[in-house]
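>> received
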Amino acid sequence: MARQIYYLKPLVALMVCYLITLLFSGCSDDKQPKKVDVSKIPVKIQSIRWDQALFHCDTNALEKSVNALGNRYPDFASVYFTELTGFAKGNDQSVFFNSVRHFLTYKDYVDLYDTVQKHYPDVKEIDQELAQLFKHIKYYFPNKKLGDVYYFISGLNFWSAVTVDTAVGVGLDMFLGKDYPFYAAVQLPAYQAALCERKYIPVNVSRAIYEDMFPIVPDGKNLLELMLMKGREMLFMEYTLPETSDELLIGYTPEQLAWCKKNEAMIWNYFSTQKLLYSTNWQDILRYVNEGPTSTGMPPEAPGNIGTWLGWQIIRKYVKHYPDKKLPEVWKENPDAQGLIRDIKYRPKG
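>> returned
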């Protein structure tokens, strides 16, 4: 075939090359991050079923059992009992152990634990997916230390993925499927319950690691600055999860993503004409860079978190505008937002 193409007339050859380029570059969506070889990056996941270890504690010798568990995993135990469950927020040891006992014996919590075990009898596949994620993170940040993975339940306390020093925690009780009935009982909105599917575990872990490496501090930031900060976060998730679709990364349905692509200019114009881009009024702007059912002021088809999606498109264009800039530089830097927009001449056309 190569020899046949070589002898075609120049114009025909150019057309063939163009069609071949389209064939290999015009697939699926517009997200085409470079596929990088991570096969030789050593990552060994040690996963700890904290949920099982905790519920196997002997309630007849609870203090001894819980102390033994804490001594075995001191760093995670401290965060789990203090931050994730709140059992140890006070200094009263009797209150702490009574709280743990209640958690391990109360029917609703026992049923929750049993449901998690049915959904996740083992975590081998999740470990494999997280190993690939960790390899991609270490490809871009070779010195990044990534430790163990703790699988836990917090009693539907909304903790899906957390970082504890070099370790990662995954709250399995927040990945029981959108139809799990008790999400509604704890007043979890439907748009958030939709993200409680097992497929979102690597996405949430990637986001948690990024926010640990590059904390997003909204204080004093205007909407455009927040959009670009969130856009860099999305870019990190895109490149560390290169096989994951745009819909899954942003938490949209295919229809919602298609609407955003079709109306990118309208979204930008709305933010501009409503003088929101440089607003620092949290009540006006935070709803556009956080999950939500819809976007205020836009058609009902517009999904929530639309500022994050738009910031992602801007950062993508920024990366294309500076092809020689290394991705870790993009994630680390915090350029002037107005200057960036002016520099890359971002003006979507409707």
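>> Residues 223-344 form one domain.
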